[in-house]
């Protein structure tokens, strides 16, 4: 297994989320049917697409912040406790800002 490379991983994630957001925007820009019943279904689908777009944009923002931390030399360091974020956590969640303990506390668990 190759070593975890945060720069490559974050760039790939940013590209993936950006492509996803672009495809969703394209779907949302399509015209709707003149048939009222079909139009109602299309509007419901648009609500789902809006939610998916919001998720993709949030993920792009999180990855952008992770890339910024990487360039500043603070990637992988929890800003709350100052401890290193475990490599396993970063491999699973490359844009993770907090260590598992601080993330759990922040979520109120």
What do you see in this structure?
With 109 residues, this protein is an all-alpha fold. It has a single domain, classed as Up-down Bundle (Four Helix Bundle (Hemerythrin (Met), subunit A)). The protein is 67% helix and 0% strand. It has helices at residues 6-28, 36-72, 87-92, 100-106. Helix 1 runs antiparallel to helix 2. The longest helix has 37 residues, at 36-72. The chain starts with 5 loop residues before the first helix and ends with a helix. The model has no long low-confidence stretch (mean pLDDT 92).
Question: What keywords describe this structure?
Answer:
single chain; mainly alpha; Four Helix Bundle (Hemerythrin (Met), subunit A)
Q: Please indicate the percent range of residues in DSSP E strands (runs of 2 or more).
A: under 5%
Please count the helical segments.
Answer: 4
Number of extended strands:
0
What's the number of structural domains?
A: 1
* Model regions low in confidence, pLDDT < 50 over at least 5 residues: none
CATH architectural arrangement:
Up-down Bundle
Q: On the 0-100 scale, what is the average pLDDT?
A: 92
Q: Label the overall shape.
A: elongated
Helical content (DSSP H or I, runs of 4+)? 55-70%
**CATH homologous superfamily annotation:** DksA, coiled-coil domain
The main sheet comes to: none
Radius of gyration: 18 Å
């Amino acid at each position: 297994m190759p070593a975890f490379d945060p720069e490559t991983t974050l760039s790939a994630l940013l590209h993936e989320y950006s492509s996803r957001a672009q495809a969703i925007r394209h779907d949302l820009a399509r015209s709707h049917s003149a048939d009222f019943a079909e139009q109602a279904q299309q509007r419901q689908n648009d609500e789902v697409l809006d939610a998916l777009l919001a998720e993709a944009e949030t993920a792009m923002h999180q990855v952008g912040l992770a890339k910024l931390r990487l360039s500043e030399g603070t990637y992988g360091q929890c800003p709350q406790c100052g401890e290193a974020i475990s490599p396993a956590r970063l491999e699973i969640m490359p844009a993770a800002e907090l260590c598992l303990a601080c993330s759990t506390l922040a979520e109120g668990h």
